[in-house]
Amino acid sequence: MFKKSIWKKAVISGLAVSLMLTMTACRTTNQPAGTSKVESDYPNKPITVLQGFAAGGGSDQLAMLTGPYLQKELGNTLVNQYIPGATGAIAWTQLTKQTAADGYTLSITNTPMLMTNYLMNTEIKYTIDELTPIANVVTDPGILVVSKDSPFKTYQDYIDYVKANPGQLTIANSGTGGDDFFTILQWQKATGLSVKMIPFTGDGPSWQAAAGNKVQASSTNLGVVYSQVKAGNLRALAIYSEKRSDLLPDVPTAKEFGVELVAGSSRGYSAPKGIPDNVKKKLIDSFTTIAKDPAFLKGLQGAALPIDLKVGDEYAKYLKDQETEFKAIWDSVKDTIKK
Question: Where is the signal peptide (predicted)?
């Protein structure tokens, strides 16, 4: 009894001392209760940015353009970590399941693959509900490209070949379940034609395969290949947007050929669910600030990336809307794909 009584008193005493120290610390630092010192001076160490795709693709491009400005606003460095595979699912599983919710690990989140991964594969267990969406930065329209010495000089040449050789044309995409994958599915449905889809581990390997004639074409994004098209290394046949791009005015839209298809990829940044409110606010404020920076906007324009800033709750709603939209698309074609 005596030993138990002393142990109990010691525990109570220890808790009391701990509570007093906590209250004193809160008063001394003028911090609200529940906010740690690490949170209040965030970020006080480098921030890791997970990328679910290989270097050279759309995620990497966004990181390179955004990183310097974001570092300046946050006052610390950003370190890119490449984890390609499963169309981003490996990186996003790590973010949601294995990462502390302290704001020191973010990930570039790409639609629609962020949600189509688990919509298409029940073995992938993360969902967007396990994220804290911070900011969408750009939306990059889809584009069809071939090598500079391809026999396809025009989009009509491409169409004619596919009609004459159903299911034979090889076309690269950035990975099963990605925006390019879905763009091809939507294109096949809209045209009634079929092609042979070849998945890669990101936009970079996809367009590089087309440039090297390892495949006959690549479905990718304008911002990813704009410099390659301008340099003459790739030939753009069609763009999947409402109207022609001012940057490539000679490239027709698919809609001009009667194909009702507008598609692309949005890219932004998210954190694990449950990061401290003040950390979330610091990140959102930083993105809001750089989105007004003329130098940053000029960089995006030079890379053919249209800014499409959505932050916080607006970005979260956008992701949920995308989840609903692409679930409907997948449900309409999945039986055909599995056959």
Answer: 1-25
Q: pLDDT grade, residue 24 (50/70/90)?
A: very low
pLDDT at 19: 34
Fold held by 141-264? D-Maltodextrin-Binding Protein; domain 2 (3.40.190)
Where exactly are the structural domains of the chain?
39-140+265-338, 141-264
Report the predicted TM-score, pTM, of the whole model to 2 decimal places.
0.77
pLDDT at 128 over 50: yes
Residues 246-293: tens digit of each pLDDT: 999 999 999 999 999 999 999 999 999 999 999 999 999 999 999 999
Q: Which CATH number fits domain 39-140+265-338: 3.90.1440.10, 1.10.1040.10, 3.90.1150.10, 3.40.190.150?
A: 3.40.190.150
Q: Could you please report the per-residue DSSP string of 148-203?
A: TT-S--SHHHHHHHHHHSTTT-EEEESSTTSHHHHHHHHHHHHHS---EEEE-SSH
User: Long-range contacts made by residues 67-71, C-beta under 8 angstroms, separation at least 24?
Assistant: 69/290, 69/293, 69/295, 69/296, 70/286, 70/287, 70/290
Q: Which residues pair with 133 in a beta bridge?
A: 270
Residues 26 and 33 sit within 8 Å (Cβ to Cβ): yes
Which residues lie across from 239 on neighbouring strands? Answer: 143, 253
39-140+265-338 shares its CATH topology with 141-264: yes
